[in-house]
Amino acid sequence: xxxxxxxxxxxxxxxxxxxxVEFDFAMGEPELFVELVLRPEAFDEFCAANKVxxxxxxxxxxxxxxxxWAWRLADARETRFR
Length: 82
What we know:
DmpK; 1 helix; Phenol hydroxylase; Nucleotidyltransferase, domain 5; four-stranded mixed sheet; alpha+beta
């Protein structure tokens, strides 16, 4: 059984004060995604070109992220490294 790359998913993470949209993009499996940032116009064009299905915001009807594997690259903004 292979991954159907025709299925594409977007989950909006944040609408930033500077106007950018932070979102996750996945092909085939929503659990395997990349984190992207685009201006709203580019985001709309990206979603239309990829014919994405929008996923609900994290935490709505899904498992919690209280485990070690739930870390995201965007979380590094809030972390101090020594």
